[in-house]
Design a protein that fits this description.
Length: about 575
């Protein structure tokens, strides 16, 4: 197939806070350098001290969403440290901030009561931080990039990495457009473009589809702990009055999670009486009947939440995975021609549920590394290695090392996990006060079989028998997905590749009761009764088959992470498809 190709200097895959900060900072470094070099040459310095101007450096950011920010979902309480380094006068420049944090509280929820902790756990101390809609903040960063001369291409998913004969990354191929569900070209067919670059930066967020393949291909996770994840499910509500002021931050522990399931809730007050609430469930839960969306719905039935939401209206919905493995689960972040930034590299601090500040900082450090590589005209792994050195010398490292064993401790249940977290805080991150590194298994391996819980037959619903979706306080997945404004052209191949669907009705049904129907927060996976002609003339027999409602997909990546057989591969759909997380 004939493909167009474009030669860029640097290509950033994914327009999240990490990559937009990187692109913006790089454009600024190049501009400042060129101004200084030109000035020096003008005064007869001959470019000796500063070096030659770099000239026109082509920087591109590609994004799979229809617009910048469309696929961005977060909490979010932002530690402003990263943004203040990137744009020191960010407030004066009009960064969209909902509110400074004015009040912090931490509650332990029993099924009926909410017990307020007299002290806030130190990692959840949000004094001096801001509540933000990361969707809006990201769109604003996108505008800053464009003003700085960065080329931004929404609706362009990175579909494949491009390698040379020596396995050096040389760019990225964007996805084809206009392929029908049978895989045939439609009238509007447009082949993807080969974007060649001296350096490609992967900032795809959590469980990046290209990052996953790159890590596997180049063995970048060798000697590291496996990455583990959580899933955050979130709604925005319009409240009828000022009962929950902008700037109030509440975190909860306890109800509805059982003590073997890592989980907790958040409630943030935004502007204009909008309440932002969500629930995080560890994607290393054991009970195969757990449904993170139902956990969140049940969270809202707690008397405290039900009262808070009474008379309000749910206006937005979304869900996204969170990389929770921390320091020990971070892969090698560089190779020939490529760097990995932000959540794709696991920079998130799970104890604080914060990753925006470190995503921005990692992007800035990547930009400084690339700038140096451009000056030296050397894009090899040995040159790009200095990115990891920069990370180690920055404030990111002490922060992440302090919580390096946080998530792993919860494998032993909530109370030992909490005790371990407290010990780590005192010992500077040691697990159980002694170990530098606690081992954690990949989350899907923690999932137990139905038989281990004594579940029999078709158990779907057993765990949530008492949960009703009343359409006022609690919503089923389909209603919620409607509020994520998801759109995919249905006449395209499914972007969720199940490598062996024979397992679904047999082994998976028996062993785990088809958990994809539950762990997916968007009702993408459904086991349906199918009728097919039988051996008897005119007769029909029925069987259960997996139906993939891919057009519901909110790009959270949970299926790729949590499938017990690891046979679901999430790949990018046609550009522009997916949720529209306006205001989230
Ligand atoms: C529920 C939840 C709550 C959170 N709460 C907080 C909080 O309160 N405070 C905080 O600091 N952090 C919070 N975080 C974490 C924070 O959102 C992330 O750390 C941060 O967004 C990471 O930025 P990023 O740029 O690495 O990735 P992302 O923000 O995920 O951005 C990645 C971008 O890349 C695009 N992309 C992905 N793959 C491709 C591809 N192949 N081609 C083209 N584009 C692609 C995506 O569409 C997306 O726009 C939360 C996260 C979640 C999920």
């Amino acid at each position: 197939m004939e493909r167009e190709s474009l030669e860029m200097d640097v290509v950033f895959v994914g327009a999240g806070p990490a990559n937009l900060s990187a692109a913006f900072h790089l454009a600024r470094l190049v501009r400042e350098h060129d101004e200084a070099a030109t000035k020096e040459m003008g005064t007869g310095g001959g470019g000796q001290a500063t070096g030659k101007p770099l000239g026109e450096i082509q920087i591109a950011v590609i994004e799979k969403g229809a617009s910048i920010g469309a696929h961005i979902l977060s909490g979010a309480v932002m530690d402003p440290r990263g943004l203040a380094e990137l744009i020191p006068d960010f407030e004066a420049q009009g960064a969209p901030l909902e509110s400074p944090v004015k009040e912090d509280q931490f509650l332990y929820l029993t099924p009926k009561h909410a017990i307020r902790s007299p002290i806030n756990p130190p990692p959840l101390n949000n004094h001096g931080y801001y509540i933000v809609s990361l969707n809006r903040l990201t769109a604003w960063l996108g505008e800053k990039c464009e003003e700085a001369g960065v080329n931004i291409f929404p609706e362009f998913p990175g579909a494949e990495m491009l390698y040379d004969a020596d396995d050096r990354v040389v760019g990225v191929r964007t996805g084809d457009k206009g392929i029908d569900k049978e895989g045939k070209r439609k009238a509007n067919f447009e082949p993807g473009i080969d974007l060649f670059a001296k350096v490609t930066v992967l900032g795809e967020g959590v469980r990046g589809s290209l990052t996953k393949k790159l890590i596997q291909r180049l063995g970048l996770d060798e000697g590291r702990e496996p990455q583990v994840y959580s899933l955050g499910v979130k709604e925005l509500w319009e409240l009828p009055d000022d009962r929950y002021p902008a700037g109030r931050v509440t975190h909860t522990l306890g109800f509805p999670s059982d003590q073997w399931t890592y989980g907790g809730g958040w409630i943030y007050g935004m502007q204009n009486r909008v309440l932002n609430l969500g629930y995080v469930t560890g994607l290393d839960y054991r009970d195969p009947l757990i449904d993170p969306h139902s956990e969140f719905q049940r969270f809202k039935t707690h008397p405290l939440l039900a009262k808070l939401l009474d008379g309000g209206k749910m206006i937005r919905y979304g869900a996204k995975a969170i990389a929770a493995g921390g320091w020990h689960a971070m892969p090698k972040m560089y190779a020939d021609g490529v760097l990995i930034v932000g959540d794709s590299a696991g920079f998130l601090n799970a104890a604080r549920l914060k990753g925006i500040h470190s995503a921005i900082k990692s992007g800035m450090l990547a930009a400084e590394t690339i700038f140096e590589a451009l000056l030296a005209e050397d894009f090899s792994a040995s040159k790009l290695e200095s990115y990891e050195r920069r990370v180690k010398e920055s404030w990111i490292t002490p922060e992440l090392r302090r919580y390096r064993n946080f998530h792993a401790g919860f494998r032993h249940g909530r109370w030992l996990g909490m005790a371990n977290a407290g010990l780590q805080y005192i010992t500077g991150g040691r697990a159980w006060g002694i170990l530098d590194r606690d081992h954690q298994e990949p989350g899907h391996e923690a999932l137990r079989k139905l038989s281990a819980y004594g579940y029999q037959g078709d158990n779907a619903g057993q765990r949530y028998q008492d949960l009703r979706f009343d359409g006022k306080l609690t919503f089923n997945k389909v209603t919620d997905v409607y509020h994520a404004t998801v759109a995919h052209d249905e006449d395209q191949p499914a972007h969720l590749h199940v490598l062996d669907t024979n397992i679904c009705a047999t082994r998976c049904a028996e062993e785990y009761g088809n958990p994809c129907q539950r762990f997916c927060p968007a009702a993408v996976y459904e086991m349906v009764e199918m009728s097919e002609p039988s051996a008897v003339a005119g007769g029909h027999s029925s069987c259960r088959q997996l139906q993939i409602n891919f057009s519901n997909c909110v790009h959270c990546k949970t299926c790729d992470i949590m499938d017990p057989y690891q046979i679901i591969n999430w790949v990018t759909p046609e550009g522009g498809g997916g949720p529209d997380y306006k205001g989230m």
